[in-house]
Write a structure and sequence with these properties.
It contains 3 helices and no strands. The chain is mostly helical and 85 residues long. Helix 1 packs across helix 2.
Length: 85
């Protein structure tokens, strides 16, 4: 099974129109990917959908947008749902 980073890399590259190689844990959504707040909100919605299963619905609270600056921040949030990864 793919790791959180591997899954996120594909989603971020597709949704933000960036190269997969540029999606690293330290990459900044605003500085490296030029993502706006609305871009990030849309990305989070896609991430919630893609990571949710019939058994577990992923819901990232709206306030978390103020805490997500890098890919690692998003990975850390998702690890709350998938601690084994």
């Amino acid at each position: 099974m793919a790791t959180i980073l591997e899954r996120l890399t594909k989603i971020i590259a597709r949704e933000l129109g960036v190269d997969e190689e540029s999606v690293t844990p330290s990459a900044s959504f605003t500085e490296d990917f030029n993502a706006s707040t609305s871009d990030l909100a849309e990305l989070i919605a896609v991430v919630e959908d893609k990571f949710s299963t019939s058994r577990r619905r992923i819901e990232i609270r709206d306030e978390a947008l103020d805490e997500i600056f890098t890919v690692q921040d998003l990975i850390d949030l998702l690890r709350e749902y998938f601690p084994e990864d």
